[in-house]
TrEMBL record:
It holds the Pfam family Carn_acyltransf. This is Carnitine O-palmitoyltransferase 1, muscle isoform. The keyword Transmembrane helix applies. GO terms for molecular function: carnitine O-palmitoyltransferase activity. Signal peptide: none annotated. It is a multi-pass membrane protein. It comes from Dicentrarchus labrax. One of its GO terms (biological process) is fatty acid beta-oxidation. One of its GO terms (cellular component) is mitochondrial outer membrane. The chain crosses the membrane at residues 7-26.
Length: 655
């Protein structure tokens, strides 16, 4: 090469190396900054100098207009907690639930685990954390074998959580991995474990109506179909009077049943011919749409209409939702809609984020004509929706008719669901009490649980860990010693101080869970490693067998700027719910809507003589009001002081 060529090549290589060096320096500097979580433990309204400097550095290294996935490579990995710390926090969490003899026995089991097996199992988790982006996520959601999606699915009218509000939420990035799996995603059943199948792009959806499956193309001429064109296609399906093929009506019940029988049937009967083609069409679709034939929706004039609406979204008839799809969109003949979401691919805030956008854009951006049709021209030259073809064997048809569907409906009918619209006050008044709305509600749930059952129980609250790469959820064990002390002290004159102590404890537990220092994901992963290595641990077996009689979760309201809910209250999302985790327990999902409304979705089982969802809702209502009453003297004093201040200021103006 000539001298000039060598110089040019050297310059290119040097510039490339320098560019890569700067990119990686920026990435790892940002990762180091995002590994700092001291800000989250600071008191609300106060910010230390170190946190202010940290925030400035994060903003500086983040760039002006970061995109959705800009921070993925810079997010820190979820740390593996110290075993001793996890066990200590676990013992602290169960102390108020066990008598002295039971607690002593648990201490013996935990000490034996620490001294004999813990270090060995912990080394494997640390090793995994070095090469996996997240040591806990991969094993968490696909190993179970539920009999119906009442536990894993959610009506969105939906399912899980998020913190009350992060002061640095506009600066600190969250992992966006779950976002990309929203469409073209299906949970595929397996003999030992399921897998999540995600396809990069698909151009169709599958529609279910009166027992028939239709494939509808979403593109024409290289563009998306317009809303008016989609309306045309859906109307064609509604006008179709053809009958379901043999076995087609209840085919989707296979996805609601136990996973292993479905996996075997899928291999045996749906791996070739028209069955494979049709199943591939469903599993590769962008999402699944059910055009329901029975009206649903909330109507204040109809008692428990919200309960019926939620149950329909949660399980329907058990054969009219494809429960393996990332989500099933459900449209009712009276114009109401909802979503049933599968849980393995993502958590509630992801689908909730999408649903808030749908609610806001449907009427305010897209809009309808005066006759109620979608705006835009109608393209009558669109190809008609295609019926999926099935050749379902006799043994599968008999199973769907006589066993599977009947068993599933018995399970579904056993779900006692109640929607409680708490309108006495909302987060606006709670914040005036200088406490966290989430902590306030969680302590109200503990008070309601004690009044309902006369005892305390192991309580699950879902927390997010999306500040870490591929982060999902962690458990906040809300029934703390401080919470128990508060509930027992409700007749004590000093109960307000006890409440604040319990609320502070809950907030600290939540923050620990969010920052990678939770209890349950670590213990679960240690249990998985012990099973893999054939190591028997009575302590871990005992921990994993404990029932969550009260399972709770907050559905976040994330896009408050899309709709003015004070001006358009009819466009408020109702949040969502999930089925009870324990047969004799409750599942409670709640959403804090604006300043003056909190919606609770409560589930239990009719077959349990000890639970009643409506009764529990009444206990929640009274608990919320009773706790708020503790602050009334304090609020009244503030009101008087404010009035004096206003009077003084007015006086100065007059002078």
């Amino acid at each position: 090469m000539s001298v000039q060529t060598r110089a040019v090549l050297s310059a290119i290589l040097f510039a490339t190396a320098l560019w890569l060096f700067l990119i990686y320096l920026l990435r790892y500097t940002l990762k180091a900054l995002l590994s700092y979580h001291g800000w989250i433990f600071e008191s609300h309204g106060k910010m230390s100098t170190s946190t202010k400097v940290w925030l400035s550095l994060v903003k500086m290294f983040s760039g002006r207009r970061p995109l959705l996935y800009s921070f993925q490579a810079s997010l820190p990995r979820l740390p593996v907690p110290n075993v001793d710390d996890t066990i200590q926090r676990y013992l602290e969490s169960v102390h108020p639930l066990l008598d002295s003899e039971q607690y002593k026995q648990m201490e013996i089991l935990s000490n034996d685990f620490k001294e004999s097996k813990a270090a060995h199992l912990q080394r494997y988790l640390i090793l995994k954390s070095w090469w996996a982006t997240n040591y806990s996520t991969a094993t968490l959601y696909l190993l179970s074998s539920p009999s119906i999606k009442c536990n894993l699915s959610a009506s969105l009218n939906l399912f899980t959580f998020l913190p009350n509000k992060l002061r640095a939420l506009g600066t600190v990035p969250m992992c966006s991995t779950q976002m990309e799996r929203m469409f073209n995603t299906t949970r595929i059943p397996g003999i030992e474990t399921d897998i999540v199948q995600h396809l990069t792009d698909r151009k169709h959806l599958v529609v279910y109506h009166k027992g028939r499956f239709f494939q509808v193309w979403l593109y024409t001429g290289g563009r998306h179909l317009l809303p008016s064109e989609l309306e045309t296609q859906f109307q064609r399906i509604l006008n179709d009077t053809s009958e379901p093929q043999p076995g087609e009506l209840k085919l989707a019940a296979l996805t609601a049943g136990k996973r292993v029988p479905w996996a075997r049937a899928r291999i045996k009967y749906f791996s070739q011919g028209s069955n494979k083609v049709s199943l591939d069409s469903i599993e590769s679709a962008a999402f699944f749409l059910t055009l329901d034939d029975e009206p649903q929706g909330y109507d204040p004039a109809i008692t428990r209409s919200l309960d019926s609406y939620a149950k329909s979204l949660l399980h329907g008839k058990c054969y009219d939702r494809w429960f393996d799809k990332s989500f099933t969109l459900i449209s009712y003949p009276n114009g109401k809609m909802g979503v049933n979401a599968e849980h393995s691919w993502a958590d509630a805030p992801i689908v909730g984020h999408m649903w808030e956008y749908v609610l806001a854009t449907d009427c305010f951006h897209l809009g309808y004509t005066e006759e109620g049709h979608c705006k835009g021209d109608v393209n009558k030259g669109l190809p008609y929706p295609t019926r999926l073809q099935w050749q379902i064997p006799k043994e599968v048809r008999e199973s769907l008719t006589s066993f599977t569907a009947i068993d599933l409906m018995q399970i579904a009918d056993d779900v006692d669901f109640h929607g409680c619209l708490f309108s006495e006050f909302g987060k606006g008044l709670i914040k005036k009490c200088r406490t966290s709305p989430d902590a306030f509600i969680q302590l109200a749930l503990q008070l309601a649980q004690f009044r309902d059952q006369g005892a305390f129980c192991l309580t699950y609250e879902s927390s997010m860990t999306r500040m870490f790469r591929d982060g999902r959820t962690e458990t906040v064990r809300s029934c703390t010693s401080e919470a128990v002390a508060f509930v027992r002290a409700m007749e004590d004159p000093s109960r307000l101080a006890i409440f604040r102590k319990a609320a502070d404890k809950h907030q600290n537990m939540y923050r620990l869970a969010m920052t990678g220092s939770g209890i349950d994901r670590h213990l679960f992963c240690l249990y998985i490693v012990s099973k893999y290595l054939g190591v028997d641990s009575p302590f871990l077996t005992k921990v994993l067998s404990e029932p969550w009689k009260l399972s709770t979760s907050q559905t976040p309201q994330q896009q408050l700027n899309l709709v003015d809910i004070n001006k358009f209250p009819q466009y408020v999302g109702a949040g969502g719910g999930f089925g009870p985790v324990a047969d004799d327990g409750y599942g409670v999902s709640y959403i804090i809507v604006g300043e003056n409304l909190i919606t609770f979705h409560i589930s239990s089982k009719f077959s349990s003589p000890d639970t009643d969802s409506y009764r529990f809702g009444q206990h929640i209502w009274k608990a919320m009001v009773d706790i708020q009453a503790l602050f009334k003297p304090e609020n009244d004093k503030k009101t008087v002081e404010h009035s004096k201040h206003v009077h003084l200021e007015n006086g100065k103006k007059h002078i």
